[in-house]
Design a protein that fits this description.
Elements (H helix, E strand, L loop, with lengths): L5 H7 L3 H9 L14 H7 L3 H10 L6 E2 L2 E2 L1
Antiparallel strand pairs: 1-2
Helix pairs in contact: 1-2, 1-3, 3-4
Length: 71
């Protein structure tokens, strides 16, 4: 419905082991949902600092935008 991927849900719930598994399966970690939100933006909005740092180390785009504004 909202276009979230499993990576979005893992970032939202701070499930580092799931993120590792998804990366092993070559899932894209910088995908956007219908609102233009990436897993990194979800981690930042949920204040999951450890997850945000992990995604940034993997190469997530720190300049991703959410609906024409920077989060």
């Amino acid at each position: 419905e909202c276009g979230n991927t499993v990576m979005h849900f893992a970032a939202e719930e701070n499930l580092a082991n799931i993120v590792d598994l998804l990366l092993h399966l070559e899932c894209h970690f910088d995908s956007v949902n219908k609102e233009g939100v990436t897993p990194l933006l979800i981690a930042v909005m949920r204040r999951n600092e450890e997850m945000a740092i992990t995604l940034l180390k993997l190469g997530a785009n720190p300049n991703a935008r959410f609906k024409s504004r920077t989060v």
